[in-house]
Structures are given as C-alpha cells and as structure tokens.
Design goal:
The structure is a homodimer of 466-residue chains. Chain A is α/β, with parallel strands linked by helices and 466 residues long. Chain A is 36% helix and 21% strand. The first copy, chain A, is built from 14 helices and 17 strands. In chain A, the strands form two sheets. In chain A, strands 5, 6, 7, 8, 9, 10, 11, 12 and 13 form a nine-stranded parallel β-sheet that branches. Chain A starts with 8 loop residues before the first strand and ends in a 7-residue tail after the last helix. At the A-B interface, strand 2, helix 1, helix 2, helix 9 and helix 11 of A face strand 2, helix 1, helix 2, helix 9 and helix 11 of B.
Chain lengths: 466, 466
C-alpha cells in the first residue's frame, strides 16, 4: 500500500461461520473495493472493531420486481382469485408509477431486505418505459433509479434488464400495462453498454433476463447465447410458474416449458430458472444435471397459488436452488426458507429436511443450516456475485445475529442457524455490512427514516374510512 | 358509581374496527373489571387518552404448551424426522424443567405473543408433576406458575389442565417424560376447585382438556360430560393430528378418531378439536354441524409434518376454526393465519381465500380480514373468553396497528387487515391493551427486559463453539 491508499477496515468477529463450523475471534480485513483481504485466527485483538454475536454471510435474493413491494396486501380481495386475476391488479397498479415512485419504493424495499439479512438482490427489471409505452428522455432512466435506490440502501445489486416482446405463445401484441415492458435482445445489449460504466463504478453487476416463454419469441430464446457469449453474465427466466403456461406450451410447441427451454438454449450454471414449479421427473433430472440454479420464491408462489416445487427429488438429484422475494409479500430470507421447508413437510407428512434432500454437516447439519447453505452458495452463483461466504476475495457482506436475542438464547452449534430460520418472526439480525460498510446497526438501517419518509410520500394517501 | 369507586378509564380511538367497518373517533370507557362499559361516536374528545392508528380486537391463541417455547429451533437436526422423533426430543427436553424454568419460559412466551397481537391464550397444560412423576408439595404448583407468568406478562389466560392416563390405545403405562403428565378426570376437577378462587380473582378462566384418544381411556371420554356438566367450561382435545393415530384408532376401535369421538361424547360448541388434520368428508360435515371449533396450529402442523387440514370444504360447510401457536415455533397470529392461507393456495393452486370458504364483507372482505374474523370470533368461543370484538360487555383487549408503518402506508378499508396478515414479517403492532391496561407501548412490552432477563437466566448456557 502506498501512503495515498485509504486504510483497510479491520474487524474482529467473536463468532464467525467458517465452512461448517463456528470459528472464534476471527480478524477480518476488508480492502477498499469491499472485498475480504485477509482472515486470521491467531493473535490478540489490536484495536480493530470487535463484533459480538453470530456472524454469517449475507443472503442473496435472486429474484425481485422491486415496484411490486408497493402492492403487498392490496390484492387479497375476492376478485383476484387466480394468478391471472392478480396480474390484472398488478398491471393496473403499475400504470401510475413514476421514476420517483419506483426509486422510493425500491429503496424502502432494499432497506427492509437488509434489515432481514439479504445483502444483495437480483433485480428482474421489466418496468422500462413510461405508461403507454413511449420512451423516457434517458431510455435507461428506470434502471438508473434502481441503481440509485440500491446505493441509497447500500445493498448489493445485480441488475437483469428483461426481454419482453409479445403477449403470449401465439405472438400476441402487448396490451395495457405490458406496453411499459417492451424490450428486445438488442435493446438489453444497448442497456448494458449504456449502464456498464456507472454500474461497475458502484460495484453493481449486470445480467440478462428473458421474461418467459410466453413473452419472448422462439427465435430470441435461440439467439440469447450469441449475445451473452463469453461474458459469463447470469441469464434468468421465469419458467413453468403456472399450469396454464405448461398447457399453452404443450399446445403451441409440443413440449413442456422447461423441457422446451433446455432443448433450445444452452442452459447451464450461468442460468437461473425462476419458479420451475411444474416440472416432471425428466425435467428435474435435466435441470439438476445441467447445473442451473432454480430460483424459488416460496411466499410469492404460495400467495399466487402457483404450486409446490418438488424440492426433495431435486435436492436428492444434486440440484441447485436459491431464494427470491419476487412480489415482496415477504422481505425476509428466513421467512422464505421456512415456508419452503414447511411446504415440503406438509405434503410429505414428514420432518425430513429439504424433503429428504439435505446433506450438510456440522453447524449446517440441521434443516435451517442446510437451507441457508443452498441460499448462500447457489444464490451467489445465480447472480454471479462473489459472496455467500466470509472468505478471501469475496465481498465483505456479513450479517450479525444477536446472541442474546430471545430466539437465540442458549443456542449453539447447528441450533443457531436452525433457530434463526425456524424460531419466531422477530428478527435476531442486529447488524449488517455490505462490502465492509455497516448499513444496519442495532437493528436499524442507517438511513431508515429518510427512506421511509420518501416511501410514505410516494404512497401519498392519508388513510380514510372506507 | 359511588365516590369510592376508582374512575373508569376512557380512550378515544381514531380508527376502530366496528363490525365490518372502520369507525372514526370512538370514545371507549373501560370499567374496573377490564370490560367495555360504553362506546360513543358522538361528541368531541374530552381529555381521555387519544389513540392513533388502526385499533382492532386482540387475537385469541387457542392452543399452547408454554414450556415448548424453549425448544424452538432445537429439533431441526436430521434425527427427529417425524412427529414421533420430535416427541422423543421434547420428552428429553422437559425432563429438566423446574417450576422456575416453566414460569420464566412462559412469561417470555406470553410477552412475545402480546407484542405480535395475541391478547389471550388457552394453555393446554399437561406438565403437572416433577421429573419422575412424584408430586410437588402443592400439587397445583405448575398451574400456579402459569398463572403467575400470565400475570407478569399481562395476557389473558384460560387454563386447561389436561387429563393424561396412559401411553397408547392399548392402555400402555406412562413412560419416561410422560410420568410428569399423569392426571385423571377427578384430578382435573380437584385442580379446578383448588385454583378457582385465585384464577377468578386474576380474571383468568378455567376449562377441561383431554390429551388425546391415545392418552385418555374410552371410559373417561364417555364420562367427561358428567364432570363438565352445566358449567359451560370449554373442553379441548388433540385429535387426528397424525396418520398413525388414525390407523391405530381404526385398528383398536373400528372408527376414525374424530368419528369415534363424536360418537362417544356430546361434542358441541363448547369443544375445541385441536388439529383435526386427518378428517374425511363425513367428519368434516359432522364437526361443522355440531358447532365445535377446530383449533388449527399451522406452523406447528407444518413443522411436525402433520398435514393440511381441509379448510376450504370445512369453511364452506360453515365450520368454525381458530388458531394456536402450540409448540411456539411461531408466536405471531398473522404468521399462523398467513401459513394457513398459503397452505390452501399451494394445494388448490388458486388464490380463493380460505380455500374458497371466505364469506365476510366490508373491511373483513379480503382474505386477511376473513381469517382474522374467524380467529376473533371462533377463538373466543373456543376459550369461553368474552373478547374478539370491541363491544359493550366484552373485555377491553385491543391491538393498535401503526398507520405509518411501511407495511400499512397508504392502506385503508379491507387492505389494512390484508396487509397486516400478508405484508412482511416486521410487525406493525405498536400498542396492546388487555382489560384496558396497556401492556405493549411503542412496540415494547412494559416488562420486556426483566422478563427476557429471567428467560436468559433460565436458559443458562453461554454460547460456546461446537
């Protein structure tokens, strides 16, 4: 280091998850790029910041439509009694959202995510244009607002602009709210070029997203590899979320959605198949075999009545999966993992973790630890994010659980992570750092009030009697 | 009122749930017994305490084994992979619990329940005796500790001492941990006599519980009506929680558990059938027809791999149901209701609320409101508790939601209750009163730290590396 370099930050974690064990008194140095530069367990503390509690990696959130946070709780009436009815409510809702609204909503969402223990988010971004489908003066306006929100909150971001070309398997045109989504493959490429500099400077990532087989032509699905090329960027797609999609794909193409996709595109470990709810035995084996990550969104899949992913069979086949909060009826990693596990236990009528597919050891050996292990590792893979573990070279994204919290009192070993996941809804998360910077301390976000204020102003309404 | 009577307490609620609408500026007087003496919407505020936010009835928790709170998160390893494996862990755990432990654990549990919006609890109490099965000097020692914990926390209590006679359908003896549970019908009657004065003075209720058809003889089930008699006390029983119980009952008695029970005892609206998970079409109709309340414990039923109750069919048949936190992996009413609803949506693959059985209107017309309506009304019926609504003569048990909380910003009408149930895990509950006394203010319980301190001391362990 030259005399001009800013000093590295150094922390001493009293208890830190290292592999499958709790390590004591680990000294961690973080460089100016927010990455872990050194880890030492020898030597006395030497003035660096001591952090009590149970320190674990921050959790990646692989699937988000940030604007939907403002809709949570508004679509529970008797009208929208199916996914498709909900989608109509969502389209009507988004018609009035301005860039300021989206930035305020996203910042609030990201603050909530951080407080619950998510430290990076994959933004499946399709709200590109103004209502009616024109263009903002800056065509990448909405994407810049997502970046701004992520920077305000201090969360890690992997931005996935979405290809959205048509309204259905028959090549239907875009209607109503969908006109804000129009984007072709080349358009996403231009957005990458436009945004690359600012995103890199902010430490944010970029990737590709295809909305779904309904919304993207066969030709475009076939060409995506050519555009992604050797970039190693992640590629995400919604697939097989609803039974209706499976029926329509079979009728239009003679194949199930996941089956068709794996036959048309070189799906591999850079890909994230979001939901993949309706898959048969062959598809399960094929996805597990190709190394793609399945992006599960349990609270959204439940809220929308999608169905249960066959987790046990998939995990036993060595499949990779991670979690996302999608429509943001939940903003908590442990609520997602808990519901994922409970769905399996309810239908298998057993307590075998991960539907019988759990294989971790040590302090990851309980159901909670096994679920988190997938979320950390497979989630970071799905986002191309170098995190998910406190290791040299990885981003210093760390969540600290309060050892004295009533949910964790008397807990040690595997019971710490099991209790974080399964014991109660009051969060034991006390502090969160992203890239070595504290963004949550003492259970509060460093900009919590100003972000909430902007969110309230955006919502605008004063409650009135109804 | 004579000059010697203490003054009534008076509150002005800016928004109060009245029937199926939000009423504005309601002046409520509470008498010295903690019951609502008057409700007025006319007239200007006259110095009584103003309460902002959305005020709703406190939620009853119909099923609790308080000591199990200390076990939450400890039984998620690969060992206990069935209900029966979990039960072994639970028996081993309870062997070392002293009356001080049970009081400390229960008080902490009840504080957590209050903070989440439960205002009364039905304690299905079977931990009567010391380890090994002797007797405490005061045979009702453990029950008195439950009352003490409820008073420390300030929660309403309906105490249900449990009859537990044998280890299985074949009349097996009690073994191991079960020896702390031994109690026959007459023993419960004597406990009622012993406790009646103190419980009445504390405003707590009493009732009857039969552990299960495994643990209570056919003769005792037949005699319970004789002992309950005209008292109108509630009668609770675990029934049909696991498929193994159904098989054993069919083998031993030639009938399914709920079927057998309804044929042997005059089950009616004083009864609460806890779980009733495994019921066929005829049983569903019979339970709905007799007016009994089904006590659903969604997070516990999921955690233990019991299965999904057929809520849609039952609700469409006019059945009554309420919620309990049972093993206390959750301590939140909205987490229970949310999981109850999500289980239905996942298996029906639709968004129809309550599996298609919701029938409320107005601000209760969304899925959240409909679920709460059952919890309030059927839950209070199951406990014989005069609550569940802010009405003259009922107990002044009120939960106040912060209208400015990010989960509730911009919400009005039915969306308020829908958002409380479905939007996120950070609770918007700000204040809670029980019998007109504030026990939670600004999101903190009035005795939170001292109760947590006793809980930590009881847990005892300083976390160590494992």
């Amino acid at each position: 280091m030259s005399p001009m370099d800013p000093p590295r930050r150094a922390f001493r974690f009293e208890r830190l998850l290292a592999g499958d064990r709790w390590a004591r008194d680990v000294r961690v140095e973080v460089d100016t790029a927010g990455r872990i530069a050194s880890l030492r367990t020898d030597g006395a503390p030497d003035g660096c910041e001591t952090v009590t509690g149970w320190a674990v990696p921050g959790v990646p959130n692989v699937h988000s439509h940030s604007f939907q946070r403002a809709l949570a709780g508004l679509a529970e009436g008797r009208g929208p009694d199916s996914f498709w009815g909900w989608r109509e409510v969502m389209y009507a809702f988004l018609e009035r959202l301005t860039p300021d609204d989206v930035e305020a909503i996203s910042a609030q969402l990201y603050v909530e995510m951080l407080k619950a223990g998510f430290t990076c988010v994959g933004e499946f971004h399709y709200l590109h244009h103004p209502p009616g489908g024109g263009r903002y003066e800056d065509p990448a306006e909405m994407s810049r607002r997502i970046l701004a929100a992520a920077r305000t909150a201090g969360i890690g971001l992997v931005h996935l602009p979405v290809v959205y070309e048509r309204g259905g398997f028959g090549g239907e045109g875009l209607e109503g709210g969908q006109r804000r989504f129009r984007m072709d493959l080349e358009g996403v490429g231009r957005m990458h070029d436009e945004l690359a500099g600012d995103f890199a400077a902010a430490g944010a990532g970029l990737g590709w997203a295809l909305h779904s087989l309904r919304a993207v032509s066969e030709g475009s699905v076939g060409r995506v590899e050519e555009l992604v090329g050797g970039s190693q960027m992640p590629v995400h797609i919604h697939v097989a979320e609803q039974e209706r999609e499976v029926r329509e794909c079979l009728a239009a193409r003679g194949a199930r959605p996941v089956e068709w996709l794996l036959g048309r595109a070189p799906v591999d470990e850079r890909w994230c198949l979001v939901h993949a709810t309706h898959v048969n035995r062959e598809e399960i084996a094929a996805v597990a075999g190709c190394g793609a990550v399945v992006g599960l969104c349990p609270t959204t899949e439940a809220n929308l009545g999608d169905g249960l992913f066959p987790l046990g069979e998939f995990a036993r086949a060595g499949g990779r999966f991670a979690i996302g909060t999608d429509s943001h009826v939940s903003r908590s990693p442990v609520e997602e993992l808990r519901l994922l596990e409970y769905g399996q236990r309810l239908v298998t009528r057993s307590r075998a973790g991960l539907g019988g597919g759990g294989r971790e050891e040590g302090v990851l050996g309980g159901a909670g630890g096994a679920l988190l292990a997938h979320a950390w590792s497979d989630g970071c893979r799905a986002l191309g994010w170098e995190g998910g573990g406190v290791e040299i070279g990885k981003r210093a994204d760390v969540v600290v659980l309060d050892a004295g919290h009533p949910a964790l009192v008397g807990r040690e070993g595997a019971a710490v992570l099991d209790s974080w996941v399964f014991s109660g809804t009051e969060t034991p998360v006390r502090d969160v750092m992203v890239g070595g910077e504290w963004v949550v301390t003492g259970g509060r976000h460093v900009r919590e009030e100003v972000v909430a204020g902007a969110f309230r102003a955006s919502a605008g309404a004063t409650p009135t009697e109804s």
